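Look over this today:
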Amino acid sequence: MNIWLLIVAMALVSLAERASFLLLNDRLRPPPMLERALKYVPAAVLSALVAPAVFSSSGVALGPLDVRLIAATLATTVAWLSGSVIGTLAAGMGTLWALTWLLG
């Protein structure tokens, strides 16, 4: 019984926290410095998700034929030059799949 009460309480707290951003958006504005800092969150989260997959120690030899490193480098170059999310994903995943298929 106590575990269900805890689950319901956690769900209500989570719902209240998420709803507060929608309901109180007009009244509560974050400081300008925090708003500027929050612009970097998506890039930081993406880096935190991608970096372990590229640089993990399990099965990755950081040599010239590391397909994940090559695909990540190409995707980074496409992102830098074009700024296109779709182009970056297509270049990175296309390179990863093609090199994995070609090199086995």
Residues 2-23 form the longest helix (22 residues). Residues 1-30 form one domain.
